[in-house]
Amino acid sequence: MHYFLISLYKIFYMHIDARTLINGSLIEGDICIVGAGASGISIALEWINSPYKVILLEGGGFSYEDETQELFRGKATGQPYYPLKSSRLHYFGGTTGHWGGMCSTMDEIDFQKREWVENSGWPIQRSDLDPYYKRAHPILELGPYEYNLEYWLKQDETLAPLPLDKNVVYSKMWQFSPPTRFGKTYKDVIVNAPNLTLYTYANVVDIKAFEHLKSVQEVTVKNHAGKTHTVRAKYFILACNGIQNPRLLLASNTQFPAGIGNEHDVVGRYFMEHLEIKSAELWLKDSKKMNLYAWTGKPRAELAITHAIQEKYRMLNGTASLMPLNIANKLKPAIETWSNQDPRASEEQLHSANDEVDKKKWLLKLTTEFYKSYELFTRIEQFPNPDCRITLDTERDALGVPRAKLHWQLGELEKTSIRSLYQIIGQQVGLAGIGRVRLMEYLQDETGKSWPAFTGGGWHHMGATRMHEDPKKGVVDSNCRVHSMQNLFIAGDSCFTTGGAVNPTLSIVALSLRLSDHLKEIMKS
Amino acid sequence: MGIFSAGAMILPMLNCRSNDQYNVLLHQPTFLSLICDENALREIGLAYRKLKPDEEKKNRLVSILTAESGDKKLSSKASYNDVELFINNKIQADFEKNETVTVKGWVLSLTEARQCALFSHIPL
């Protein structure tokens, strides 16, 4: 009966507020996508006008509401971290509602098994993602699929790279999305899609398997209006986010005591962030304009270490950003300013703390003025550490789901890798005769294990449902399918086996498109 | 540690006996002095001496700094240009061979770190 009513409803509305449905409604379709962020929306777009009924579930509405955001509140232990509640956005469009738009591709080495990086090695290669990176570009409103420095030098001859040996230190290119706010950009196309129904205020709180426990039968959705509904589909894709994906698997423990897909105690483990931290100074003999490395919203570069040198020094993959030192010294560290549980307040704090630096003015200055000293700021992967993990807290959210608990742990390899990064850049800068590099104090003591108070992350939540061919070492297979479930897939950076040196959004969308193609093949057969 | 950008400094000529130019060039990391002030150079020098106790002595430092490949040594009567060229080549070769050392955070060629160490022997 309820299904009949929903079918009638859907003739007129492709968006349904789940709070308005009769309690206990049954929603059915071919594919159910859980989560409408970059990943979920990218997949949903792929299925528009297909012969399949697609259900897109979003926990929030179309804009920020604290009641919904509160569901993301959690605890953090270990290395100090941002409040979990404010590190993701919980409404249609997800965290693209406030992301910065930085995009670049992961490197070949990121996918390889590196003997010096424990637990590294994806079951896919960079070449497997290449066609999807290209397809992800228009979704993120990026320029041409070009990350080759030579290409960009031809477009703008003021983008001169530092004269370093590119066999050792090279300029890794980035592009900037406007940034695409998925919630605004894709709302109309999603809501008007004839074969797709978006349900807002539909928070998945439980996943239930068939009796044979090999595939998912349904998910339970709830909202603050006190409504509980059931969604059935042939295939399910969890596209919540890097913390909520493992949380939901762990919390779905009525049939599986340790949670779905967690037969080998891997769900939630291997959580990785990008360590983002100021690390060194570059002092030049002569003042230079650094258009190629400047933050202007145009394609820019960061200094990166070639694969051969990473191998030689047994280091993680990371990059160095350049910022004129007098400007950088005025910026407060993100870990200090992004401290409010409310993401709007944290964002406000981040900007107001840096009000002293007029953004427009310094963006202009960066490309018009010459500077002699620069801050070198690191973004570096973490090694996949099983003890760095998401677990469930004893406290539950308003919908009855145990809250997430993050234990963020940094290791020695991260520190030695950052040190190596700047010793290599320092050697190259010296060799080029252009200046000298000075490491910050926390990197000077080679025996020191502590991290300074300004240590931060990039708000990138990777790895906690990682991809690995061995179910004992990963939650999903090379097609992002949960090993032990025939029809449950996971999308997003929680599937990353290692984090690479770049912000994850472009790779998230690319991997989601690949998953979507895989599912299309399955559906065909 | 102070850092300034005014240009190369002129080091004090203390303890220089027969050949001032020779001594000055040996004691002065020319490139680094474009970036670091006298105090900073001295601090680097003291830190290097602590890091490498076997190079603590002034004579030892002079001996290493003036050594060419093999048994050859830079003559104490070498011209200013010859000394400058000799030291600069040595620094360049250090960076090429990755013979660098991190002292007080600075990634330096071994030669210029030794120059700082020698400089730190000059009384204030």
Features:
heterodimer, A: 525 residues, alpha/beta, 8-stranded mixed sheet, 8-stranded antiparallel sheet, 19 strands, 23% strand, B: 124 residues, mainly alpha, two-stranded antiparallel sheet, globular
Largest protein-protein interface: A-B, 23 and 20 residues
Low-pLDDT stretches of chain A: none
**How many H/I helices of chain A?**
17
Structural domains of chain B: how many: 1
- The Rg value of chain B, from CA coordinates, equals 13 Å
Strand content of chain A: 15-25%
Oligomeric state of the chains present here:
heterodimer
Return the average pLDDT of chain A rounded to an integer: 94
Give the biggest sheet of chain B. 2 strands, antiparallel
Unreliably modeled segments of chain B: 4-18
Q: Widest sheet of chain B: strand order? A: 1-2
SSE class of chain B: mainly alpha
What does this structure look like?
The complex is a heterodimer of chains A (525) and B (124). In chain A, 28% of the residues lie in helices and 23% in strands. Chain A has 525 residues and is α/β, with parallel strands linked by helices. In chain A, helix 2 runs parallel beside helix 17. Chain B is mainly α. In chain B, strands 1-2 form a two-stranded antiparallel sheet. In chain B, a hairpin with a 2-residue loop joins strand 1 and strand 2 (106-109). Mean pLDDT of chain B is 83; it is low at 4-18. The interface between A and B is medium-sized, with 23 and 20 residues.
In short:
Chain A contains 17 helices and 19 strands. Chain A has 525 residues and is an alpha/beta fold.
What is the topological layout?
The complex is a heterodimer of chains A (525) and B (124).
Chain A: H1 2-12, E1 15-17, E2 26-34, H2 38-46, E3 54-57, H3 66-69, E4 74-78, E5 102-103, H4 108-111, H5 126-139, H6 149-155, E6 169-176, H7 182-185, H8 187-191, E7 196-200, E8 203-209, E9 216-222, E10 228-238, H9 244-251, E11 275-288, E12 300-305, H10 307-313, E13 318-324, H11 325-328, H12 334-337, H13 343-353, H14 359-368, E14 371-380, E15 389-396, E16 402-408, H15 412-432, E17 435-439, H16 441-444, E18 456-457, E19 488-490, H17 505-524
Parallel strand pairs in A: 1-7, 2-3, 2-10, 3-7, 4-16, 10-19
Antiparallel strand pairs in A: 5-6, 6-12, 8-9, 9-10, 11-14, 11-17, 11-18, 12-13, 13-14, 15-16
Chain B: H1 20-27, H2 38-51, H3 58-66, H4 80-96, E1 100-103, E2 106-109, H5 110-119
Antiparallel strand pairs in B: 1-2
Helix pairs in contact in B: 1-4, 2-5, 3-5
